[in-house]
Amino acid sequence: MANATLVSPEREAWSTKLKDVGFWAEWAALVGLVVLVVVFQALNPTFLSPGNIASMLVAAAILIILSVGQTFVIATAGIDLSVASTMTLGAAAFGQAYAAGWGLLVSCLLGVVAAALVGVVNGVIIARGRITDFIVTLGTLSAASGLALILADGKPVTIIDPALLSLSTGGIGIFGWSFLIAVAVAVIAHVVLFHTRFGTHVLATGGAPESATAMGISTQRVKIAVYTISGTLAGLSAILLIARIGAAEPASNTSFLLNSVAAVVLGGVSLFGGRGTIIGPFIGALLLVALVNGLTLLGVSQFYQPLAVGIVVVLAALLTRFQK
């Protein structure tokens, strides 16, 4: 009886939690991922095969890194619509440097610096110019995309390098190097966001900007910093993209933009700023990749895949209304 008396309140608490829509909204990405895994595995046994899991993790690496950068921006109540074009510009800069014979290391640095500069420009215009994030990053989306086409003269550059080949195909077990790099980025981002003064300033800037300013926090510097982080991570993603496809493409793939925002929304990060996690967008990115992979295995036309992603994102956005 004594045990029953002790257990009963816990069961009651869990029962209350399970009936709370807000609880499910907080864990929407994880619950969605588990449901997708169960459904796709039941419909196609190859879904959870080691080869397919490894393929999905490598495919998710770029999206995870872009989502981490997007999370920092959205945590300040902003949004970076230029992230896909910034990645393309980084890839184009990498390709031109590599084609000119500047070597892999210098090419990588140039790609990251070019993308980081776009982030700096975004941050300075938004913070100092006090212009809406949406407008500024929409403008740099077009500008960075155009600059990439001008830089590469509209032509892709084939990159054949043993180190990049090893990066895209090697790894530890089912975990490719690309995915392990994405995990390292996510861990560092978690530490920065939740265990440093800068992280506290980021969340304060998004949650209560007036109070943050009153406490002496330079919200302008924080804004510039988060857009620079987003640009830098887009540059890192450009290197992984080149390693994966073996070429520096100057054409922007806008699906990365939609999916990076979608992963953040699925991960429970507040679009109004001030609240978020890194693990949430991480799982959100895995969910989106699992969704597309599962539909492909089932033979569903690729035309339906953006429709499915859009429906999932809208449902996730509706769930955020119930988050506490």
TrEMBL record:
How this chain sits in the membrane, per its record, is:
Multi-pass membrane protein
UniProtKB keywords? Cell membrane, Membrane, Transmembrane, Transmembrane helix
Cellular component terms (Gene Ontology): plasma membrane
Organism domain of life: Bacteria
Q: Where in the cell is it found?
A: Cell membrane
Chain segments annotated as coiled-coil in the UniProt record: none
What are the transmembrane regions? 24-43, 55-79, 99-127, 134-152, 172-194, 224-243, 255-272, 279-297, 303-322
Instruction: Show the InterPro entries listed in the entry.
Output: ABC_transp_permease (IPR001851)
Q: Name one GO molecular function term.
A: transmembrane transporter activity
CDD domains reported in the protein's UniProt record: TM_PBP1_transp_AraH_like (cd06579)
Its recorded name reads Ribose transport system permease protein
